[in-house]
Design a protein that fits this description.
This protein is of the alpha/beta class and 194 residues long. It has two domains: 72 residues; 101 residues, Spore Coat Polysaccharide Biosynthesis Protein SpsA, Chain A (Alpha-Beta Complex), CATH 3.90.550. Helix 1 crosses helix 2. The protein is globular and about 45 Å long. It starts with a strand and ends in a 5-residue tail after the last helix. 30% of the residues are buried.
Length: 194
């Protein structure tokens, strides 16, 4: 799931800490790197774009990747819509702001869907960076209803909307929402002092 990288439209919480232009630049380059990393012949990579018209016509994202519009609604409504698309096989959704995602994380999520009806990749802030469904059965009715997005409760709230499902958990990764998150990422990437 990707937003068109326009100043003031993407990574606004990050932008409040580092400036809107640098936040937009970071997001655009992060997503470019991420798409190279997760493009793999083992699965079909589809860009779910927003806003719909701009995203579908964007020249920012690679032209060879198919796109679908996210449509209207809050994050939960848009994710539920994507999970309910009439395609065969399991589906996994990720966002563009998780620098540590690697092909192996995606492969692991699909493997977990071989034995589980759902999978989540927890984020270190209490949210989640990945959600996936096997799709042999419909998505739980009311999935994502009442979730407190952008809070430490997002994963717990989402799990509460799925009382009859015990999902598998993928690796816990950090998403980048604030300047503090970005500084932590930069600190973690710095070489050890001698």
């Amino acid at each position: 799931m990707l937003k068109e990288p326009r100043v003031g439209r993407v990574k606004t919480r990050l932008g409040r800490g580092i400036g809107m232009v640098p936040a937009t630049w970071w997001f655009r380059h992060q997503v470019t790197r991420l798409l190279r990393e997760v493009d793999d012949p083992r699965w079909q990579l589809i860009l779910a774009v927003s806003p719909d018209v701009e995203g579908m016509n964007s020249r920012v994202w690679p032209a060879h990747l198919p796109r679908i519009a996210q449509g209207r609604g809050d994050l939960g409504v848009r994710m539920a819509r994507l999970l309910d698309l009439p395609q065969s096989g399991p589906v996994v959704i990720i966002g563009g702001d998780i620098p540590d995602v690697r092909r192996q994380h995606i492969a692991d999520a699909f493997a977990k869907l071989g034995h589980n009806s759902a999978v989540f990749g927890p984020a270190s802030d209490g949210g989640f960076w990945l959600v996936g469904l096997k799709r042999s059965t419909p998505a739980p009715r009311g999935m994502f209803k009442g979730v407190r997005w952008s809070t430490k409760h997002a994963l717990a709230d989402t799990l509460a909307t799925m009382p009859d499902v015990t999902p598998a958990m993928a690796a816990t990764l950090q998403d980048i929402d604030t300047a503090t998150d970005l500084a932590r990422l930069t600190d973690d990437a710095a070489p050890d002092a001698c």
